[in-house]
Amino acid sequence: MQDDIYSFGNGVRVYRRHVLDHQVDRYVKAQAGNLHEPVEEHWFLTLLGEIPAADPLVYDIGCGIGYYTLLLLHERPGAEAVAFEPLPDHAAAIRENRALNGIAPDRLRLIEAAAHVAEGDVCFEAADFSSRVADEGGLRVAARDIAALIAAEARPVDLAKLDVQGAELALLRRIVEAGQAERVRRWIVGTHGDDLFAECCALLGQHWRVVHSDPAPAHQPDGLIVAVRD
User: Fold this and answer.
1) What are the UniProt keywords, alphabetically (predicted)?
2) Is residue 131's pLDDT more than 60?
3) What is the C-alpha to C-alpha distance for residues 47 and 83, in angstroms, rounded to an integer?
4) Core-most of 51, 70, 81, 214, by most CB within 10 Å?
């Protein structure tokens, strides 16, 4: 049904039409609390719990249908959430799911653009939750310079979750090379492929402290790196 709702074990709710059948199968078979990504969510909540401020600034870079942003605003009502999502269908889903969870519009800053290494526009391959910036073809979407956005914030980013289907290393390099590493205090990075996992680990280890890394965490499709700035 168009308005059927899928309820996760943590209280987050989304419209069932926003979730793929194979994802629901994974949630059920994992027997891990009916969560989207149990290991990543554990670290997300752990890092969130370490932030003393009542109004943490959290970036969700590549937020899909908004799962982690919804979880953030469920757990920390005073948080300032900034969500990046260039795919129009997913951006629409974020707005629908925000309303479904009773979250006021002013609690979420939705940037309908690809986080990128420069301002402009980029080709974007639309492929559900595997959508990504492409060299050619696909949609043309707006692109925002991630380092410039971080620099423009009135305060450092307390936590950034990065899931950009292969562009993770380029964005991390851009932030470092622009002198903005100290402006992001905590990272949760999803990686896509062994080479990117290794290179992201190395770069994060030079500028932050890696507290967890796993190229193939249980019950989720991507590698995972967690890093903090002491």
Assistant:
1) Methyltransferase, Transferase
2) no
3) 18
4) 70
